[in-house]
Design a protein that fits this description.
The complex is a heterodimer of chains A (92) and B (84). Chain A is an all-alpha fold and 92 residues long. Chain A has four helices and no strands. Chain A folds into two domains: 39 residues; 52 residues, no CATH class. The radius of gyration of chain A is 29 Å and the shape is elongated. Chain B is 64% helix and 0% strand. Chain B has two helices and no strands. Chain B is elongated, with a radius of gyration of 22 Å. Chains A and B meet through helix 2 and helix 3 of A and helix 1 and helix 2 of B. Chain A: Keywords: Coiled coil, Endoplasmic reticulum, Membrane, Transmembrane, Transmembrane helix.
């Protein structure tokens, strides 16, 4: 069985379970609070995934390893290289 | 060698904002149905229908922003066709 088929199978199981609980397809007569929690589950998972992505992006922006001295040094070296090449006749 | 001040502030505020959003939405969707209707906690949350409508509206706005951004970039990059 290919990975795609495995994933589709898993996803359809989850969707079937959710539909069973939300819409009471088997007439199980679950208590009302549980049905009220289960019904927005797909949207809730989407929102929490969005929050997780936002938090990861924010955290990595805050802890990004800027190397300011290395950046300056690199700019200096680029300038030197340009001068050097210009002297040797390469047109910039 | 840390990220610069503004970067840190922006990053941390994103983290805090997403944590707040996640907590509020979790309580709204998962905790509130188990709390009796006359508990004072219900005062701080909108009616439950909004917990579905508001993310829908946010998704539409996000798509509109992405579309507008793409349109602006493509507009700026259009090159006039060469005339022979």
């Amino acid at each position: 069985m290919t990975k795609l088929l495995q994933w589709l199978f898993g996803v359809s199981l989850v969707v079937a379970g959710w539909a069973l609980v939300s819409f009471d397809l088997l007439d199980l007569k679950l208590p009302q609070p549980y049905r009220e929690v289960a019904w927005p589950m797909p949207l809730y998972l989407l929102v929490s995934f969005g929050c997780y992505s936002l938090a990861t992006v924010g955290y990595r922006v805050a802890t990004f390893n800027d190397c300011e001295e290395a950046a300056k040094e690199l700019q200096e070296q680029i300038k030197e290289a340009k001068e050097d090449l210009r002297k040797k006749g390469l047109k910039m | 060698m840390c990220a610069t001040g503004v970067d840190q502030a922006v990053g941390m505020s994103l983290v805090v904002f997403s944590l707040l959003l996640f907590t509020y939405y979790s309580v709204w969707v998962i905790v509130l149905p188990f709390v009796e209707n006359d508990h004072v906690l219900h005062k701080y949350f909108l009616p439950r229908e909004y917990s579905v409508i508001l993310p829908g509206i946010a998704a539409v706005i996000l798509l509109l922003c992405i579309g507008a951004f793409t349109a602006v970039i493509m507009w700026k990059n259009r090159k006039p066709k060469k005339v022979d």
